[in-house]
Amino acid sequence: xxxxxxxxxxxxxxxxxxxxxxxxxxxxxxxxxxxxxxxxxxxxxxxxxxxxxxxxxxxxxxxxxxxxxxxxxxxxxxxxxxxxxxxxxxxxxxxxxxxxxxxxxxxxxxxxxxxxxxxxxxxxxxxxxxxxxxxxxxxxxxxxxxxxxxxxxxxxxxxxxxxxxxxxxxxxxxxxxxxxxxxxxxxxxxxxxxxxxxxxxxxxxxxxxxxxxxxxxxxxxxxxxxxxxxxxxxxxxxxxxxxxxxxxxxxxxxxxxxxxxxxxxxxxxxxxxxxxxxxxxxxxxxxxxxxxxxxxxxxxxxxxxxxxxxxxxxxxxxxxxxxxxxxxxxxxxxxxxxxxxxxxxxxxxxxxxxxxxxxxxxxxxxxxxxxxxxxxx
Length: 377
Ligand SMILES: Cc1cc2nc3c(=O)[nH]c(=O)nc-3n(C[C@H](O)[C@H](O)[C@H](O)COP(=O)(O)OP(=O)(O)OC[C@H]3O[C@@H](n4cnc5c(N)ncnc54)[C@H](O)[C@@H]3O)c2cc1C
Description:
Blueprint: E1 8-15, H1 19-28, E2 35-38, E3 48-52, H2 53-61, E4 71-73, E5 75-80, E6 85-89, E7 99-103, H3 104-112, E8 121-127, E9 132-138, E10 141-152, E11 163-178, E12 185-191, E13 194-201, E14 204-211, H4 213-221, H5 224-235, E15 242-245, E16 249-257, E17 266-268, E18 274-275, H6 283-300, H7 309-337, H8 342-357, H9 359-371
Parallel strand pairs: 1-2, 1-10, 5-12, 10-17
Antiparallel strand pairs: 3-7, 4-7, 5-6, 8-9, 9-10, 11-14, 11-15, 11-16, 12-13, 13-14, 16-18
Helix pairs in contact: 1-3, 1-6, 6-7
The protein binds flavin-adenine dinucleotide.
Flavin-adenine dinucleotide (FAD) binds at residues 15-21, 38-43, 49-50, 121-122, 153-155, 157-158, 171, 173, 208, 251, 270-272, 278, 281-285, 287.
């Protein structure tokens, strides 16, 4: 294969079959910007995902919201083991919901079904001042493609991120049922090993329980009744007993991020730009804002501007505040809350209690969690 001899094919090549790459392709579909989406092996991981109300607005603008099945989150109850709690309610913000829980696979299916895609993988690329030359592969077959701009939306799998922190935590993800479910309420509970979230999902709860790797191995090995008893011990009695648990899976948790502009004529968005701890459900929401803002810039750009250094620099600048706020916020929560040091536990409890009696502080925090640091929509 002589990649360089192929004619230019597209303005924008998007590598990634996840929700962020799909959202970008959808936002550009039907526009003068020509797009090739390269999806690789599509990962239809069966796991729940919480979308903020801000992400709903983006999906509505993409015409994809009505087909995404979801459970609304009207109230978020935040607590730590020991003392300290606060409650956020959608009514305090004049919104119908703070967020929504859906399935990753269903979201991707809705977004992906609407734009053409190639099942090839991005194997490599080389860029110069004028273009980026992609090397794509599927099985034994290779081919080349040329683009003005390559957007990496592959979850970070094709690049080594510059900054990384291993949280030494694993998320155990499973569906559970509770004796006294509370419709529309999501729970985030901080424990010494990591945060535990219970999200309303279908007619059950989705559990995302971050623990140290040794505890994850132990929890995975427990019988269902023992696992549920341990969950109740950590979570408390608010929902009564837990009655059933589905298959449990684990995800290693780390923070990884790198430059938004990894190379000439290349941009990274979504998890390819920053992979966050799932605490407070920020990762995909941030990625959808990356995709939305990039799409608006591409739609406004003249063809020759697409992928040029000034275009890349402008995008990196426009996303910096939101991106670093998301990285800093989740990293802060994990590091401050995931320990049992008595003075810190006291300070955290006091912080949560203060939030509870200070509506403006709560509003500030909730707005940023819903719309991002730039309060987008
Ligand atoms: C346990 C857990 C719970 C989470 N909960 C939440 C939550 O509640 N809310 C939230 O906002 N975020 C949450 N997140 C984060 C969220 O899942 C990610 O931020 C989101 O999936 C990022 O989407 P993406 O499209 O950027 O990347 P991904 O979802 O990783 O998708 C990348 C895609 O690119 C494909 N790909 C890989 N390599 C190539 C290649 N070489 N060529 C072509 N394609 C390729 C992959 O197969 C995949 O389909 C959670 C994460 C975890 C681990």
